[in-house]
Amino acid sequence: MNDRSRLVSRALLPFAVVFALSTVGSLGTAANAPLSAPTIVVPYGASEYKYQVVSVDDGIGFERPDFDDSAFAVGDAGFGSREGYCELNNTGDVRTEWPVETDLLVRKPLDLPAGTTDVVVYVAVDNDVQVFINGYDVSDGLQFHEGCPSLGSFSFAVPDSLLQVGTNLLAVRARDRGVLAYLDLEVTRRSRLRLG
């Protein structure tokens, strides 16, 4: 390599490095971009759930997106017993009656924009709960809970691979085993921030 070649190589090297880094950066932007703070998609006390009260274990298949829920009623969370010794069992927090010793099936569409990640479903329940997103069980079966409900008794992280841009389906089976009943939900999401 002669002196002129060395000079050209040294002059072009910074340009080549900058170009390579900018190219790699643009390809990896989505996966490596910083995340936004959590945004509430469905708040506790949300309105317009489709719901149905059924006998224990009835309603098989209600979690599927193609399930016909036209026979379901429309109600507002929280669901449960309005009187009792638990803090959330009161006329302010219970907006839709849910009888004890039954299962409650709820369905609610979630609209998610492109870039959504880290969706989490938070549950306040008395007694047990099973959570589905787009027909997939994200709670690993029916989860058991004893005692009074509290906000955030359970949290279920939704794998990003289950999410789609636009309408997604949240479906929940809650089970009461006697005395008092309660269910309310919150869903949060995060987004990848655009750089530049």
Please outline the helices and strands.
Blueprint: H1 3-27, H2 29-32, E1 39-42, E2 49-54, E3 73-75, E4 79-80, E5 96-97, E6 103-112, E7 116-126, E8 128-133, E9 136-137, E10 154-158, E11 166-175, E12 182-191
Parallel strand pairs: 4-5
Antiparallel strand pairs: 1-12, 2-3, 2-6, 4-12, 6-11, 7-10, 7-12, 8-9, 8-11
Top CATH class of the largest domain: Mainly Beta
The share of residues in extended strands comes to 35-45%
Radius of gyration: 24 Å
Shape: globular
Biggest pleated-sheet summary:
6 strands, mixed
Structural class: alpha+beta
The third-level CATH topology of the largest domain is Jelly Rolls
Just name the CATH architecture of the largest domain.
Sandwich
Tally the beta strands: 12
Query: How far from one another are the termini?
Result: 39 Å
| Global mean pLDDT | 86
Order of helices and strands: HHEEEEEEEEEEEE
| Weakly predicted, low-confidence segments | 3-29
User: What is the tally of helical segments?
Assistant: 2
Assign a percent range to the helix content.
10-25%
Tags for this entry?
196 residues; alpha+beta; Jelly Rolls; 2 domains; six-stranded mixed beta sheet; six-stranded antiparallel beta sheet; 12 strands; globular
Walk me through what this model shows.
The strands form two sheets. Strands 1, 4, 5, 7, 10 and 12 form a six-stranded mixed β-sheet that branches. This protein is 15% helix and 36% strand. The protein has helices at 3-27, 29-32, and strands spanning 39-42, 49-54, 73-75, 79-80, 96-97, 103-112, 116-126, 128-133, 136-137, 154-158, 166-175, 182-191. The chain is globular, with a radius of gyration of 24 Å. It has 196 residues and is of the alpha+beta class. The protein has two domains: 1-32; 33-191, Sandwich (Jelly Rolls). The protein has two helices and twelve strands.
